[in-house]
Design brief:
This protein has 135 residues and is an all-alpha fold. It has helices at residues 2-16, 20-44, 49-72, 82-99, 105-134.
Length: 135
Amino acid sequence: MAAATDLLDGAIARRLGGSRLGAVLDPVADKLFMVSAAGAVLLSGRVPPLLLLAVLLRDIVATLAFAWVLVIGRPAAIAARWSGKAATIGQMAMLFAFVVESSLIVPFAWVAAAAGLWAIADYRVVANRDRQRLS
């Protein structure tokens, strides 16, 4: 349900125009949801803790990057990319497998972790390109 309402919210924001507040609150809500859901998965013991950390790594890096740009006073935004969407899909697949008690939870966790690493690398490339363009 969370993934479906997030998709709906995004579609509505694109169609009607989003707000600055929504642009900040949406990713914060997404991160809080993922951390909460990962906590439930962790408590279940169905995914090894280090693998679960790898699944969350993209969200951790994104949060640290957001905090860093606030600290240095140079706010920047990078548009959503397919790599990030792939990581989110992997995370949602893992959570769905958890909810339905599927044996695919660990393979989906590996997919989510790999997609998250891809997203980190992809966003890093874009951030470097944008920084060079602005220099």
